[in-house]
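Here is one chain, start to finish.
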Amino acid sequence: MKDKIILLIEDNPDDEALTLRALKQNNIMNEVFVARDGAEALDYLFGTGLHAGRDLTLMPQVILLDLKLPKVDGLEVLRRLRANELTRLLPVVILTTSNEEQDRTSGYGLGANSYVRKPVDFVQFTDDVRQLGLYWLILNEPAPLPKRG
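Its structure:
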C-alpha cells in the first residue's frame, strides 16, 4: 500500500498538520505529497514548473482537494484535471470546511468523486480520514492510467 501516493492540496498549515496526523494515527503510511496552492498541485500532476521532469506514470491513488486555495482555486484545479486525458480519471475527494450548496453542486458537476466536510472535532476528523483511507486506498479499484505515446 505504500506505493499508493496521496496528493493533499491544502493551503492551511493547521489543516495540513491535522490531516497528516489523522493519517498517521490510522496507520495510513502512504507517501503524502502536499501541494499548498492550486498552481503547485497542477505543476505536480502535469510535470511542469518546479515538477518538470517528474515521472508521470506515478500518479496519486487519491487527491484530497481543498476548495479555497491561493493562485488557482480548488474548483479550477478540478476543472483542469478533468479536462486532461492523463488526469481525468484520478479519484478526487473534495475535503473542505465549506457547507455551501453551490460548492457541492459545482464540485460534483466538475467530476469530483466525493465531497467531505472537515469536521471541527479532531476525533471525528480522524475517523473520517480512516474511512477515506480504507475506501480509496484499499477497497477502491482505480481506473487504469491512459497509455502514453
